[in-house]
């Protein structure tokens, strides 16, 4: 069998099939976005493709870095098996060929073309409207500069998506030495506390993950927790 050539898409198998599809997609996006811009994450739950996923990056070096660093990483208690995908993804082809559309979408796109133009003319600003107060919905508040705070081994995390879970955050912060605990706050979605063994280790994680985007609309805001 010929070797699979490096490309922008990585193929992942041995995923925990008990994890819900959307939760797995969010976890994979959060985990792999550290290596480059992600165009798409595909998770399959059909019997034949259960436990498998594809992550599409915008460039080959990002996919290569992710593959090298994340092989056998434990995700939801199972080591990921990662390799390059055998074929180029629709997302990548569409970037290099403006006329391309996935087969199953071409007919729908053609049928809806006229209707879409009409709607765009009737509501030219509907989708691009900016709130009167000047802030974009979902945008993160400005991060607090670490130098203005007293260092602490415990970090306070804000602006998380409501559906963020402890294991998802642990996957991000465990990359940095000294992680001791990740605590979500009951009844308070969007915030969490992450504890390291000492202040220096906490500072490394803070500086590395400040403004890291869990989703397109949620960049983490990290600060030192106030000492009691």
TrEMBL record:
Q: Basic and acidic residues composition bias: which ranges?
A: 100-122
Q: Which is a Gene Ontology cellular component entry for this protein?
A: spliceosomal complex
Keyword Secreted attributed:
no
**Residue ranges occupied by any RRM domain in the UniProt entry:** 8-87, 153-227
Location of the protein in the cell: Nucleus
Give the residue ranges for region: Disordered. Answer: 98-151
Keywords in UniProt for this one? mRNA processing, mRNA splicing, Nucleus, Repeat, Ribonucleoprotein, RNA-binding, Spliceosome
Q: Which GO terms describe its molecular function?
A: U1 snRNA binding
Q: Which domain of life is it from?
A: Eukaryota
State the family it belongs to. Answer: Belongs to the RRM U1 A/B'' family.
Task: List the protein's name.
Answer: RRM domain-containing protein
Q: Which organism is it from?
A: Selaginella moellendorffii
């Amino acid at each position: 069998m010929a070797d699979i050539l490096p490309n922008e898409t990585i193929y992942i198998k041995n995923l925990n099939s008990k994890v819900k599809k959307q939760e797995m997609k969010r976890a994979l996006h959060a985990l792999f976005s550290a290596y480059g811009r992600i165009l798409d994450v595909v998770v399959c739950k059909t019997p034949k493709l259960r436990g498998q996923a594809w992550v599409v990056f915008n460039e080959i070096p990002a996919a290569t870095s992710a593959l090298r660093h994340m092989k056998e990483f434990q995700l939801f208690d199972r080591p990921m098996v990662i390799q390059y995908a055998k074929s180029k993804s629709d997302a990548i082809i569409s970037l290099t060929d403006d006329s391309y559309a996935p087969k199953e979408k071409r007919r729908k796109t053609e049928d809806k073309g006229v209707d879409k133009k009409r709607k765009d003319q009737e509501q030219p600003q509907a989708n691009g409207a900016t709130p009167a107060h000047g802030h974009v919905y979902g945008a993160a508040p400005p991060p607090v500069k670490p130098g203005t705070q007293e260092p602490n081994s415990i970090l306070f995390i804000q602006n998380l998506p409501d559906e963020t879970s402890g294991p998802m955050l642990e996957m991000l912060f465990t990359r940095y030495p000294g992680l001791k605990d990740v605590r979500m706050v009951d009844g308070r979605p969007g915030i969490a506390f992450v504890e390291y063994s000492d202040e220096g280790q906490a500072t490394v994680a803070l500086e590395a993950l400040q403004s890291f985007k869990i989703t397109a609309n949620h960049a983490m805001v990290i600060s030192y927790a106030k000492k009691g």
